[in-house]
């Protein structure tokens, strides 16, 4: 596996593959890779002849007081994990490569409405930064396929939306959430948890399963959301939301709306904020 940090070297490699008629898949990451990321790689590998992974902790998607500084940076370990999972090329740029005019003066990609709610409401500016960097990566790599984790459900929907609206020729795929044996969704942020918090965190998946069962029993959406918040608090978490939304656009479903739904939770445990979701239908 080749590692490159500059756009020119990245483009030269991709050009060579394209000249040989090969397809290219991209797995964008912020590093600190775990089995959840390797599942994305596996999906890209199944769809494409070549796979590029990027590792870049993107400053513009972190808000003030969030964990940009302490986000775990483990490039050497990531390199060997990627090589073991049949990655062809690792793109690991610095901030100056991704933001040649600096982060304050960068052109931004903004997706209205879809980013006003849930994560967008609780992390202002997060999706602008995320969409901007993903759009840049699409331009730099020009992949046929890009794979993201379904754990970041709203992120996946935001990416699908700007790809379609901007006419970017890439197929966006979401890979299923990879969970620990006790149901906790794998995340780089799980390592911030103390042993007690790690135990409490299992309430997130339990609550999602309860929300699914409650919906199947025909209980009203608002009632389920309210009780889910109570259940999370009772387990020692501080929830930002526990919501049931239309899976397609994350809008609040009307009672007679039979679009598929998804349950989504964001909750804090001490200084750590975790998200998870479960497709209900
Ligand atoms: O999901 C992530 O790890 C990040 O949001 C992404 C897509 C790599 C953009 O920085």
Q: Can you give a write-up of this model?
A:
The chain has 281 residues and is of the alpha/beta class. It has two domains: 2-175, Rossmann fold (3-Layer(aba) Sandwich); 188-279, Pantoate--beta-alanine Ligase, Chain: A,domain 2 (2-Layer Sandwich). It is built from ten helices and nine strands. Strands 1-4-3-2-5-6 form a six-stranded parallel β-sheet, with helices on both faces. The radius of gyration is 19 Å and the shape is globular. Bound molecules: pantoate. Residues 28-30, 58, 61, 130, 133-134, 152, 155 line the site of pantoate (PAF).
- Enumerate the strands of the largest sheet in spatial order, edge to edge or round the barrel: 1-4-3-2-5-6
Helix content: 25-40%
Low-confidence stretches: none
At the first level of CATH, the class of the largest domain is: Alpha Beta
What's the main sheet like? 6 strands, parallel
According to CATH, the homologous superfamily of the largest domain is HUPs
Unique ligands: pantoate
Look up the CATH topology of the largest domain. Answer: Rossmann fold
Strand content: 15-25%
What keywords describe this structure?
281 residues; alpha/beta; Rossmann fold; Pantoate--beta-alanine Ligase, Chain: A,domain 2; six-stranded parallel β-sheet; 9 strands; binds pantoate
Concise summary:
This protein is an alpha/beta fold and 281 residues long. The chain contains 10 helices and 9 strands.
Would you spell out the secondary-structure blueprint of this structure?
Elements: E1 2-4, H1 7-19, E2 24-29, H2 35-47, E3 50-55, H3 75-84, E4 89-91, H4 95-98, H5 119-122, H6 126-141, E5 145-149, H7 153-165, E6 171-175, H8 195-200, H9 202-216, H10 221-234, E7 238-246, E8 261-269, E9 272-279
Helix pairs in contact: 6-7, 9-10
The structure holds pantoate.
